[in-house]
Amino acid sequence: MTSLTFKTCTGSEMLPYLDDLAALRIAVFREFPYLYDGDLAYEKRYLATFAEADKAVLVLAFDGVNIVGASTGMPLDKETENIQKPFLDRDIPVETVYYFSESVLHPSYRGLGAGVHFMTERERWALGLGSFLWLAFCGVVRPGDHPRRPDDYLPLDSFWMNRGFQKALGMTCTINWQDLDEESESPKILQFWMKPLF
User: Fold this and answer.
1) Distances in Å between the alpha carbon of 61 and those of 34, 49, 68, 106?
2) What is the distance between the alpha carbons of residues 23 and 41, in angstroms, rounded to a whole number?
3) Residue 98 · residue 126 · CB < 8 Å
4) Angstrom distance (rounded) from CA 160 to CA 150
5) DSSP β-ladder status, 134-140 and 186-196
6) Residue 105 — φ and ψ, nearest 5°?
7) What angle (nearest 5°) sits at the alpha carbon of residue 35, between those of residues 142 and 174?
8) What does the DSSP assignment read for 117-157?
9) Residues 150, 31: Cα–Cα separation, whole Å
10) What is the CA radius of gyration of the chain?
11) Where are the domains of the chain?
12) Residue 6 bridge partners (DSSP)
């Protein structure tokens, strides 16, 4: 990780980075498995919610002055109803869960430890807040024979399990977005993973 430096931001500290982060998200999320045909204006609006949300966090990875990766998190009770519903259905109080929203990293910088740093720093942040019992995130579910699945694609399941997360069986949500091959948005199923903080 010799070429990377990191910065953790919250609140208005995030604002100067939102334009660059929106462009990075669109570029990375075009890749499998998300295949997201992104919109810059939407991304800026979405990212602004983190700057406005109490206790939200943004962890940035830089190569020099260039943002090459980023990772976000916020309390689950600040998230949308479709993200909260699987927890409410299991009688898990949303105010006890810190939600890891997403991580993006430019392909040239993968395998250098940034992903571990993103996980570690967000967990440290959640622990420091002192009011959360769980960490959670979700990842899109794609069929093994998806036509855009690269031959060398490796799911991140083992990485997540090595960080202490387990697949929360039966806990999924639906989020709409437009795939690269679609003319409009369609629902996508995402699987939740969870980790106890204590």
Assistant:
1) 21, 20, 6, 10
2) 10
3) yes
4) 20
5) antiparallel
6) -150, 130
7) 55
8) HHHHHHHHHHHHH----EEEEEEE---TT-TT--TT---SH
9) 9
10) 16
11) 5-196
12) 61
Rounded to whole angstroms, how far apart are CA atoms 89 and 99? 17
Residues 109, 68: contact at Cβ < 8 Å?
A: yes
pLDDT tens digits in sequence order for the chain, 198 residues long: 458 999 999 999 999 999 999 999 999 999 999 999 988 889 999 999 999 999 999 999 999 999 999 999 999 999 999 999 999 999 999 999 999 999 999 999 999 999 999 999 999 999 999 999 999 999 999 999 999 999 999 999 999 999 999 999 999 999 999 999 999 999 999 999 999 998
Which of 163, 58, 60 is CA-nearest to residue 116? 163
As its CATH architecture, domain 5-196 has 3-Layer(aba) Sandwich (3.40)
